[in-house]
Amino acid sequence: MKIKKYVAIITSAITICSALPFNYNNLKLLSMNTLSSNAQPNIYNDLEYVIKQDNTVEISSHCNSISGDIEIPSQIKGRTVTSIADRAFMWCHKITSVKIPDTVSHIGKTAFHGCDCLKSITLPSNLTSIEEETFWDCPMLESISLPDSVTSIGTAAFRECSSLASISIPDGVTNINSMTFYFCTKLQNIVLPKNLKTIDSYAFSNCTSLKSVDIPDGTEEIGFYCFSVDSSLETVYIPDSLKKVGILAFCETLWYEKQSNGPLYLGKAFYEYKGDAPENTNLILNDGTFSITKYSLIYCNGISSLTLPNSVCCVGDSALELRKSIKSVTILNPDCEIFDSDSTISNDHDAEFKYSFSGTIYGYKDSTAQAYAQKYNYKFIALDSTSEQSIISGDANCDNTVDISDIVTIRRYIIDSEKYGLSQTSKNNSDFDGNNSINAQDIVAILKFLLGNDSSEI
After folding, report:
1. Domains of the chain
2. How far apart are CA 200 and CA 71, in angstroms?
C-alpha cells in the first residue's frame, strides 16, 4: 500500500508540471505563487513597500504618479521604515526633493540613479554608507549634506551630478572610490576627510570648475586620472605622506602646467620627469622616495643613468621604459617590488612589442633587481656588499666609464646641487683630486686624465 501511495504522489506531481511549458521561468513562477501569500505590492502614499522578516519596512519602489517634493514616512501602519531598496527611485523623472527620516539606516545601490529633476535630498542622521551609483546622473542636484555617521562612499555615487557645487566629506571616510564625483562640472569646493588614506581612479576627473584642493596629511595614495581634465585646478596641496600616485593624475590642469621641467615629486612618489632631460643626465632620485609612478619616464629623453635609493619600495608598470640613451639602472633596495613586465625597465622594443634593455642593471646579489634581470635576460652586475658601488675615480654618472659626460654631470652639480643631486657613490667618484670637495678643480683633473696632458695644455 505504501508503494502505491508514493506512486500516486509522484504521478500527481508530474501531471501538475506537465500542465505548464517546461522552462525555468514557469517553475520559478509556480514556486513564487506557492510560497507567497500576498502577490500584490503594499502601497502607501504612492510608495511601494515590503515588510521584512524583522517586521520593519523597506521602501521598494514608487508608483508612476509620484512627483514633486516627497517625504518618506518614519512609520507605515505601526511598522518602522528602516531602509530604501536598490533601484527604488531609479529613473523617477518627476520628483524634485526627498526627505528621508532618521529611522532609515540603509539606502540601496542606484536608489536615486537618473532622477533628473531631483534638486535636494535630506539624508538620515545615522546613515553609515552611500552605496555605489546611488545618485549617479542627478544633474539638477545642487547640494547635499552628508551626515557625520557616513564612513563609506561607493563607486560613482555622485557621478555626473553636474549641478553639485560643493561637498564636505565626513572624517570617518578613509577611501574615496573611483568615479565618485566624475563629471561634476560645477563642483567648486570640496572638503576632504581628515582620515583619508586613498583616492581612487577618476574620483574627481572632469570637475572643470574645481580651482583648488587640499589633500589631507596622512593620505597615502591617489589613483590614475584622479584629478585629470580639471581645467581650472590651479592650487593643490600635496602631503608628504603621499606614497603612490597614478598615471596622469593631474593631466590637463593649470597646476600641472605651472610645474617646472625636471624631476617632479608628489610627496614620496616620483611622479615623472617633466620634459626632456639634458643630454647625459645622471638622474638620482631623492632619498625618501617610496614609489615610481607607472610610465613616469616613458616620454623622457636624455637620461643616461638612473639610481633608485634604498627607500624606493615599488616600481610601477613601464615606469622605467626609457629612450635609447639609458645605459644603467641602479636599484639599491634589495627587496624593491618591480612590476613584472619586460617593459618596466627597457629602452627598445620590436615590431611585436617585445621589450629589451641594452644597458646594465645594478643591484645586490639575490635581490629583486637580480631576479628581474635574470628573468628577462638583461645584463646584471652585483654591487659591492660594503658600498653602493665600487668607486671609479671620475665616474660621476656611475656608468663604469670616465668620459666627457662625467664632466657634464659634475658641472651641473656645481651649478645647482639641488636639481642635479648626486648619490654618495657619485660624490666619491666626482672628487677626482681627493680633496673632499667637488669643484672646478675636479673637472680640470678629469680633463687632464682624459687628454693625458698637463694643466698648461688645457
Report:
1. 2-35 (no CATH), 40-127 (3.80.10.10), 404-457 (no CATH)
2. 34
